[in-house]
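Reminder to self: tokens first, then the designed residues, so the page reads top to bottom the way the pipeline ran.
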């Protein structure tokens, strides 16, 4: 095949129940400029998104699925591809940016609202392990691992990865 239609993908695991992550994904897409939810299927844990035309693209189609990974974890898989038959030749990196924005905004919303949403949904949350100073030790290592995955997928530059890692370790 000369061109892909889905030429950018990204995955991220979040330590929250699948329903909470689904809500965060929908809220993330709703908050991102130029993205519109075309289909939202909570039962299938799937969201289909369309983006408008821009100076860099004829528009993209984005498919997002959320898969449970145990009782308190979910994996978000995002695929973004051009609407045109020319695929990646016409996107100028916009697909990669779509994937990055959706995952990053979902993470931000979960950090801000997950506890509240879990309570609203009647779900029990698990607290991260604490060290003697009261800091979450497991979550820092988990966050660095997640950032490494995003870097390896090309969604974060090495500079962005190092900056975020330094911030998490308190070296900024």
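Designed residues (172 positions):
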């Amino acid at each position: 095949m000369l061109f892909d239609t889905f030429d950018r993908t990204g995955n991220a695991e979040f330590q929250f129940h699948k329903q909470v992550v689904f809500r965060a994904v929908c809220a993330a897409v709703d908050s991102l400029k130029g993205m519109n939810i075309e289909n939202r299927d909570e039962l299938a844990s799937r969201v289909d998104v369309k983006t408008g035309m821009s100076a860099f693209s004829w528009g993209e189609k984005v498919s997002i699925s959320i898969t449970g990974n145990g009782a308190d974890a979910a994996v978000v898989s995002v695929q973004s591809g051009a609407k045109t038959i020319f695929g990646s030749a016409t996107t100028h990196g916009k697909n990669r940016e779509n994937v990055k924005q959706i995952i990053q905004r979902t993470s931000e919303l979960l950090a801000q609202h997950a506890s509240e949403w879990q309570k609203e949904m009647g779900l029990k949350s698990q607290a991260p392990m604490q060290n003697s100073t009261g800091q979450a030790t497991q979550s820092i290592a988990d966050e660095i691992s997640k950032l490494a995955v995003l870097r390896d997928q090309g969604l974060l530059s090495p500079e962005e990865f190092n900056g975020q890692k330094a911030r998490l370790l308190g070296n900024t």
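Residues 94-121 form the longest helix (28 residues).
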